[in-house]
Predict the structure of Helix-turn-helix domain-containing protein.
Amino acid sequence: MTDDDTHAYAALFAEVVATGRRLTRGEIERRRESGEEAARAGHSLRELVGGQLRAVRSAWPEQTLDRRTALDLLSAVEQSVDAFSSGFERAQRLAVRQEEAERREFIDDLLYGRSDLGRTAERAERFGLRLSRAHAVAVARGPHPYTEADSAPQQVERALIGRFGDRHILLTTKGGRMVCVAPGDQREVLASFAKQAYAATGGGQTAIGRPQPGPRGVAHSYEEALGALDLADRLGLDAPVLHAADLLVYPVLTRDRQAMEDLVRSTLDPLRSSRGGAEPLLDTLTAYFDSGCVTTKTAQNLNLSVRAVTYRLDRIHRLTGTDPADPASRYTLQTAVIGARLLGWPAKEF
């Protein structure tokens, strides 16, 4: 508060002492406007209220005030401080909304790579990122969609900030998922994010994209993380943490979709003639390959007897002409099984 402001308040309060009047509507509105201007100028509310109270002391007359006059003065002070604080808070709310809108716009541009790269890099400094370095993105999901106002993202943020402090990390939510952007050489940050997200969501799943350079690299890493979660859905991967680098073979397998469809049809279509349809036999093959082609482990995972699993494998051999236990032909069959899971076969026809 400037000296002029202090003198103006002192004159106003002195007039209140002399006349006993309350503040006019115009004076109250001017107090609100003063509060807004002070907030935009970066002053603290504590400092400004203190300035008004000092103005009250300046206006307080030397003689002892009667109770009525003292109450009139205190009432005017209450009106003034209330109006001033209201204007201050209104400006702060507007600033917060503006800041949040700009932050969400930046996050959208960063994750989708839609804005001018130079402008994105320039704005990134404001939000704690240095895009001249490589960055990696982790995406965590839980049983429910999340926003930044929910307890789970806030719990994760508190844990990360408490452990790592300011390491140029960006935490946000997007599409109901939690997102962490961190320098690519700080793998411990993303590992901790995955651990904290798992705890906060009660057993969620996190996918981590590969470190990529530059502003567009963040978008690429984010796409990889989303792709890993999509693969987890299609392949039934339930690991709490997925690394996109470990799943690169799957996009390669489906890059030529027509060829993969032909492989699935030619290799697995005979399974449809089985009494229970193709699904039980396909599940058996999936469990068999996931277990490292160990029959006893496959039986445990499927909750079947070893004899039942052996029968199913023999049935697959007879129907397809390919022996799952034969290393020479196993690769074709396993690739077809992976393709079926990726393409949604046999539920989807193609």
